């Protein structure tokens, strides 16, 4: 009998146990982060269950439609937002919430206030909801600077100031990937236990990959460096094999594959969208934070993505992120274009 294999199977590292272990390395910690995270995890479990039942429960559809009971139905992204806002406020550990779904930030009332700011996209990849393709939740966490009335300035901080970031992918399995600034770990939901179990410890993105991921339908409007980079992916001049193209169209799914298989994910600027499409606070920053923690890079076409200082809540930025060497290549092309080389 293989006792060591058995021990592994029976010694389950849940996400709560993992974060409690991390917490014990900081004796001054009072467990606030662990409590906040358990509320985020609850939101993810709820959304996972709603996504799985979406077709069945007729949750899909326009907000404001009614179901057979004549009750008003909520679109899945509106429902997910409500669940996350309520879970985060009730944690008692947050002071400002910024969601992709809400124009304005939510300032938590003083009696329920804590020291964390959470920026999040409750259901990213909305164009994939109705066809059952992988979608996800993305989140980033900041610590409010001082013990004073929080303001919007507390949110408009560069990504490098984030304390933690993560995403949950609702795919063929439900996977939560988290970094608290000391590497990246992946947890998979065991539906029979209702627990996220550590399945991908210490994720490291391969140094170089064989996949590029971009919406090529926008190619006619790209700038020179992006056009040249993608051309090199397809017709490499150094004798190497061409890269494969993979594009789901859900950032969470495309970036998750990049973590595991390597390669590069691009959402560049183009003539129609000079700032690209993806949002700085709750898409670009959390994914860039995770990518750097996994040994990769994230670049905007001008600078390290995590050095950006957003000036408004829903600001957008071009983004190139993935394997270290692949991002080096696009950085070199932009350096030539910007006259830096
Ligand atoms: P979606 O519009 O479907 O919500 O920012 C949202 C996002 O999806 C990302 O998840 C995804 O990477 C990107 O937009 C896809 O955009 P395109 O359809 O323009 O390729």
Q: Summary?
A:
The chain is of the alpha+beta class and 341 residues long. 31% of the residues lie in helices and 21% in strands.
Identify the notable features of this structure and list them briefly:
eight-stranded mixed β-sheet; five-stranded mixed β-sheet; 8 helices; 13 strands; globular; binds 2,6-di-O-phosphono-beta-D-fructofuranose
Q: Given the helix and strand composition, which structural class is it?
A: alpha+beta
The proportion of strand residues reads: 15-25%
Globular, elongated, flat, extended or rod-shaped: what is the shape?
Answer: globular
User: What value does the average pLDDT take?
Assistant: 92
Cα Rg:
20 Å
Annotation, overall tally of beta strands = 13
Cofactor: Mg(2+)
Domain Fructose-1-6-bisphosphatase class 1 C-terminal: 205-334
Domain Fructose-1-6-bisphosphatase class I N-terminal: 13-201
EC number: 3.1.3.11
């Amino acid at each position: 009998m293989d006792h060591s294999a058995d021990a592994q199977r029976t010694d389950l590292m849940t996400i709560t146990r993992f974060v409690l272990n991390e917490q014990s390395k900081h004796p001054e910690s009072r467990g606030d982060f662990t409590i906040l995270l358990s509320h985020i995890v609850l939101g993810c479990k709820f959304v996972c269950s709603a996504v799985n039942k979406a077709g069945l429960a007729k949750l899909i559809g326009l907000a404001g439609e009614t179901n057979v009971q004549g009750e008003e139905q909520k679109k899945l992204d509106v429902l997910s937002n409500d669940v996350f806002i309520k879970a985060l406020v009730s944690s008692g550990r947050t002071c400002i919430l910024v969601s992709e779904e809400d124009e304005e930030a939510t300032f938590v009332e003083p009696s329920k206030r804590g020291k964390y700011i959470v920026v999040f996209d409750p259901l990213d990849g909305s164009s994939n909801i109705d066809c059952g393709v992988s979608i996800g939740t993305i989140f980033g966490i900041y610590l409010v600077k001082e013990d004073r009335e929080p303001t919007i300035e507390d949110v408009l901080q560069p990504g490098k100031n984030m304390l933690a970031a993560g995403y949950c992918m609702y795919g063929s399995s439900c996977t939560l990937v988290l970094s608290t600034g000391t590497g990246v770990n992946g947890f998979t939901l065991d539906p029979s236990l209702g627990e996220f179990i550590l399945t991908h410890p210490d994720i490291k993105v391969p140094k170089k990959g064989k996949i590029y991921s971009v919406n090529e339908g926008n190619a006619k409007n790209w700038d020179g460096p992006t056009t040249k980079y993608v051309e090199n992916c397809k017709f490499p001049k150094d004798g190497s094999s061409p890269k494969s193209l993979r594009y789901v169209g859900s950032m969470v799914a495309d970036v998750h594959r990049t973590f595991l298989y390597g390669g590069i994910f691009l959402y560049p600027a183009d003539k129609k969208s000079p700032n690209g499409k993806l949002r700085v606070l709750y898409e670009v920053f959390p994914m860039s934070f995770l990518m750097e923690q996994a040994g990769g890079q994230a670049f905007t076409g001008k600078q390290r993505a995590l050095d950006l200082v957003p000036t408004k809540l829903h600001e957008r930025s071009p983004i190139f992120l993935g394997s270290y060497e692949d991002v080096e290549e696009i950085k070199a092309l932009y350096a030539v274009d910007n006259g830096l080389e």
